[in-house]
């Protein structure tokens, strides 16, 4: 009877450890509620988000260095993006953020270009130099109506 109880306890402990491991993995991979998220955040304001969504890539020199945490409308006239940058990547104070497209009709992402300064931005700082996406519809509209007045 004693050996049977010991076996049951051992199996119970392994099942409990397995459930905890699965829960931890789900939280870490899903980044639920910010749990499991690493890195630091920066903000950037754009006149036009241009289709950038939560989870879009942030690239520097063609390498993914983070993800967009959130995109919100601010003051009813511009989009504020919360950028989560991976640990170990330093963005300089005069960095330039722009909305770009992967390929002709690909996903939108944020491209960051480092500036000449060597001082890195601190967590929670703002990237002041931004460039919104090129709106193809606006360009076509300007071209069509450029000669008519």
Strand content: 25-35%
* Global mean pLDDT: 87
Low-confidence stretches: none
Q: Helix coverage percent of residues?
A: 25-40%
Structural class: alpha/beta
What count of domains describes the coordinates?
2
Number of distinct helices = 2
Q: Briefly, what CATH class of the largest domain?
A: Mainly Beta
Number of DSSP E strands: 8
Helix and strand run: HEEEEEEEEH
For the biggest sheet, the summary is:
8 strands, mixed
The strand order across the widest sheet is 7-1-4-3-2-6-5-8
Can you tell me the CATH topology of the largest domain?
Answer: Elongation Factor Tu (Ef-tu), domain 3
Q: What's the alpha carbon Rg, rounded to whole Å?
A: 23 Å
Tertiary shape: elongated
Distance, first to last CA: 97 Å
Specify the CATH architecture of the largest domain. Beta Barrel
Explain this structure:
- The chain is an alpha/beta fold.
- It has two domains: 1-30; 39-133, Elongation Factor Tu (Ef-tu), domain 3.
- 26% of the residues lie in helices and 32% in strands.
- It has two helices and eight strands, in the order αββββββββα.
- The protein has an eight-stranded mixed beta sheet, with no helix packed on it.
- The longest helix has 29 residues, at 2-30.
- It is elongated and about 95 Å long.
- The N and C termini lie far apart (97 Å).
């Amino acid at each position: 009877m004693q050996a049977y109880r010991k076996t049951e306890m051992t199996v119970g402990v392994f099942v409990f450890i397995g459930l905890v491991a699965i829960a931890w993995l789900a939280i870490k991979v899903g980044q639920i509620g910010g749990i499991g998220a690493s890195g630091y955040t920066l903000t950037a304001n754009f006149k036009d988000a241009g289709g950038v969504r939560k989870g879009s890539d942030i690239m520097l020199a063609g390498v993914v260095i983070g993800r967009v945490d959130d995109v919100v409308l601010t003051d009813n006239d511009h989009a504020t993006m919360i950028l989560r940058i991976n640990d170990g990547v330093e963005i300089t104070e005069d960095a330039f953020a722009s909305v770009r497209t992967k390929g002709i009709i690909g996903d939108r992402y944020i491209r960051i270009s480092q500036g000449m300064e060597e001082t890195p931005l601190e967590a929670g700082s703002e990237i002041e130099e931004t460039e919104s996406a090129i709106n193809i519809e606006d360009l076509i509209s300007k071209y069509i109506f450029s000669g008519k007045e």
